Amino acid sequence: MGRSPCCEKAHTNKGAWTREEDERLVAHVRAHGEGCWRSLPSAAGLLRCGKSCRLRWINYLRPDLKRGNFSRDEDELIVKLHSLLGNKWSLIAARLPGRTDNEIKNYWNTHIRRKLLGRGIDPVTHRPLTDAATSVRQAGEDGAAAAGRHLLPLQHPQSERSGDGVQLRQQLPGPQGRHARL
DNA sequence: AAATCCTTCAACCGCCAAGTC
DNA sequence: AGACTTGGCGGTTGAAGGATT
């Protein structure tokens, strides 16, 4: 289709945000709200791509973020929601006030997933590993040792993106639809 | 004390769906 | 109706810091 790039990459900064960039972004959003992310960088005097600004705001700068360690309740809720929704991190995040999809995704991959594997539970199916022959085979290669980074591609393939777990979502209260947010 | 390995998490990438013209 | 733009999502990467050897 020939999409235009989201920004002029040659003229944007990448990598970690500086304090000054954070301050500019926060000041701009406070003054103008979360408007058009595409035009925000130039309006705010930032050499960043709009996507990058949005991500930085949502995952780090938003004032209502909780941050800090996950409580036991949150931990259990994430597992429960994941068993219902799969890797729908934004939907899971919508039910955890003050948490972001990125934060939950990271927490899942670094903590919960390993914990479930340690308990002999398949983190994909949420069933005992011995029950799911295929999963066991995968987990054998995967193993607890691989619980860290570069995990196996999780299930819920592309096709599910379009389906989007509508039925599952209807079982739960709260925001609905693909763009349900906090 | 230095080197190496491991873990964490902020940030990026590519894709898709919705919205607009 | 369809081309195009934009926002948003999930997967992945890589730097930084901690743990281990």
TrEMBL record:
Molecular functions per Gene Ontology: transcription cis-regulatory region binding
Protein's cellular compartments: Nucleus
Domain Myb-like: 9-61, 62-112
GO cellular component: nucleus
UniProt xrefs under SUPFAM superfamilies: Homeodomain-like
Keyword Lipid biosynthesis: no
Keywords annotated in UniProt: DNA-binding, Nucleus, Repeat, Repressor, Transcription, Transcription regulation
Domain HTH myb-type: 9-61, 62-116
Predominant cellular place of this UniProt entry's protein: nucleus
PANTHER family noted in UniProt: F14D16.11-RELATED
Protein name per its UniProtKB record: Uncharacterized protein
Protein species of origin: Aegilops tauschii subsp. strangulata
Classification of source organism: Eukaryota, Viridiplantae, Streptophyta, Embryophyta, Tracheophyta
